[in-house]
TrEMBL record:
CDD domains: GST_N_SspA. InterPro entries: Glutathione-S-Trfase_C_sf, Glutathione_S-Trfase, Glutathione_S-Trfase_N, GST_C, GST_Omega/HSP26, SspA_N, Thioredoxin-like_sf. Belongs to the GST superfamily. HSP26 family. Residues 9-87 form the GST N-terminal domain. It comes from the Bacteria. The lineage of its organism: Bacteria, Pseudomonadati, Pseudomonadota, Gammaproteobacteria, Lysobacterales. This is Glutathione S-transferase N-terminal domain-containing protein. PROSITE patterns: GST_NTER.
Length: 211
């Protein structure tokens, strides 16, 4: 089924109310200042529109006219190219490749632990919490190296990392004793009005915004 007339005339994002990958896309849209229609869905009970548009029935799913994109990595890179200001990837190929690899690591290593804590059994959640705590601890030097994640300017990698850092407290994952660099990093991003705009009401309730 083709996108509805309303979707063909506006950028539309299918998103869950609380999901790190959906938040990643909303953060890119907020950073770009792009106006869009947000359709909040329950991933366990996707609406017919989403079922017809996306063979995986997954979120995030972006619709623009006859274009339908899914998978957060695909959607965010498209948005960065479609709306080039401000740019969210460095110019040189080496830096771009490094950030893409970092985002892949986040998707493969960090995001599954977040989801296991949110939706798994108590035993699975406890194990995932331990693994995520270890991932956070080993990443401390990366946050000390630059003002933003692996880059002197905000990038797509921050849009992938910040939603995880935002959720750590609610997931029961404390920062390590030497984690002030992570706390400072989070506060820099969380104070940005674009980050506030990216939050759903459910995500806003996960923790307090820094003063």
């Amino acid at each position: 089924m083709a996108a509805s007339p309303r979707m063909r005339n506006a950028l539309t994002l299918f998103s869950s109310a609380d999901d790190v990958l959906c938040h990643r896309v909303r953060l890119v849209l907020a950073a770009k200042g792009v106006t869009y229609d947000l359709i909040t869905v329950d991933p366990k009970d996707p609406p017919e529109d989403l079922i017809d548009l996306n063979p995986y029935h997954s979120v995030p799913t972006l619709v623009e006219r006859d274009l339908v994109l899914y998978a957060a990595s695909v959607v965010t890179e498209y948005l960065d190219e479609r709306y080039p200001h401000p740019p969210l990837m460095p110019v040189d190929p080496l830096s771009r490749a490094r950030l893409r690899l970092a985002m892949l690591r986040l998707e493969h290593d960090w995001v599954p632990e977040v989801r296991a804590i949110q939706t798994g059994t108590k035993a699975n959640a406890d194990a995932a919490r331990k693994r995520l705590k270890e991932l956070v601890a080993t990443s401390v030097p990366l946050f000390k190296a630059y003002k933003f994640f692996l880059n002197p300017e905000m990038s797509l990698a921050d849009c992938a990392m910040a939603p995880i850092i935002w959720r750590l407290e609610s997931l029961g994952v404390p920062l390590p004793k030497d984690g002030k660099a992570i706390e400072d990093y989070g506060n820099r991003i969380f104070r940005n009005p674009g980050f506030t705009r990216s939050l759903t009401p459910q995500e806003r309730n996960l923790r307090e915004l820094p003063a």
